[in-house]
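Task 17 of the worksheet. Students: predict the tertiary structure of the chain below and write it out as structure tokens. Keep your answer in the requested format; marks are given for formatting as well as content.
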Amino acid sequence: MVCILASYYGTGSSILSALQDLFWLSKSKLEKQLQIISVLQWVLTFLIMGVACTLILMYILCTDCWVIAALYLAWLVFDWNTPKKGGRRSQWVRNWTIWRYFRDYFPIRLVKTHNLLTTRNYIFGYHPHGIMGLGAFCNFSTEATGVGQKFPGIRPYLATLAGNFRMPILRDYLMSGGICPVNRDSIDYILSKNGTGNAIIIVVGGAAESLNCTPGKNSVTLRHRKGFVKLALRHGADLVPVYSFGENEVYEQVIFEEGSWGRWVQKKFQKHIGFAPCIFHGRGLFSSNSWGLLPYSKPITTVVGEPITIPKIDNPSQREVDFYHSIYVDSLIKLFDKYKSKFGLPESEVLEVN
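Model answer:
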């Protein structure tokens, strides 16, 4: 009888243990699927939301619901300059749970090295661009990595192509995350008419840098990019170097050599439209062994460096711009060298500055 009871309770414990294992396995799978969905929606937003919303709005204008589209267009005209005046951020959107799943997919981390004074304004130079700037978006346009807690009193504004803010619906979605156009009007307004404690994040290398990003390569397009330094001087905004380790690892890209027809097409797009089309791939939706639009789940660690104090000079000379630009380049290289071994790179790795 004792043996039977022991056998019974032993079997019961085994069943319970198996059910618990099954529960946790299911929870783990559910978490992974939610992470994939969160990243997929952002990739589709990045690639097609602007065009899709424009087409849908045009279609609605041709239906019995045309009044809705007409009202939105009328409001759009009224609201046209809002992106140039700091936008319309929403803490509710920035704190969506979906961004935490987005963060955990890779995962993405934000590393603070120094405090930032709320009595100053800042321009963050973000490097490298990568294909989609995933680290820049997650760290500075959402609260998933705790930017608000790590830099209390600082309002981050991620600057992106002004053309995105001409797209209906997309413009409102971007503004809700604190994203602004990367043009002089918008930056001037934030740094001069929006008080202090503002941090504008500029992906300095832009489209040109994205053409050369590939796994295993740490290079930045910076040598002749000095406009952000001139802006910092005009407003007395401190410069902050930022490097994202792993940003180039999440997509594979076909690199066209200089002088090839492919590079010629990319440069034409970059010159006339503002972005350069890339031929890239990540993993598939249902398998990490297939090709698709999802980025590979590899860690991205964004390190925010020490601020460089910048004086306010209304009309900085080229010599002054060059001087502070050289300080910025040296600071970025030092930041890279200090943290490279901590995030998986060999001590011999050198940051290539083009």
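Marker's comment: Residues 2-61 form the longest helix (60 residues). Residues 1-12 have pLDDT under 50 and may be disordered.
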